[in-house]
Amino acid sequence: MVAIQERHDPHTGTPYRILTGGEHPCRKLYYTCESWLPDDRRILYRRAGPDWTDLCLVDEQSGEEERLFSSRDGWSVRSFGLDRHLNKGCIQKEDRLYLWMGEGGEAREWSRVPGRGAPLGHLNFRQSVMIANVYQHWRKY
Fold first, then answer.
1. How large a percentage of the chain has pLDDT more than 70?
2. Phi and psi dihedrals of 72, rounded to 5?
3. Mean pLDDT (whole number) for 50-74
4. SS3 track for the chain
5. What confidence tier does 11 reach under pLDDT thresholds 50, 70, 90?
6. What pTM, to 2 d.p., does this model score?
């Protein structure tokens, strides 16, 4: 459980809320990836330690927090993408893609990664097809 902090901007008086805490920095997902789930209540974010990154979910009303995936368990947290309209996410572990259905639960193996690389950012799902708007190929120079 996160202690939600209510604050006001000292210059404008605009209210804002701090939804994360702890000793490690928390950041929104990269600008190419949705952070809000379709319920407009739960928010995905990254928490980064010195040699690990977690993908977490926080309920912005209750402060309830859940760790979904961690690089400590082999997940490529930076590869996570979300189709907000269908509430489906995709994340990579080694050479496999896993499908996460946004209502919690485990990710299930879905597909192999084509080539050596990772899908990044916005995703669209249509029936059994995923369209990644960005694919990063890993090359050694």
1. 76
2. -65, -20
3. 92
4. CCCCEEEECCCCCCEEEECCCCCCCEEECCCCCCCECCCCCEEEEEEECCCCEEEEEEECCCCCEEEEEEHHHCEEEEEEEEECCCCEEEEEECCEEEEEECCCCCCEEEEECCCCEEEEEEEEEECCEEEEEEEEECCCC
5. very high
6. 0.78
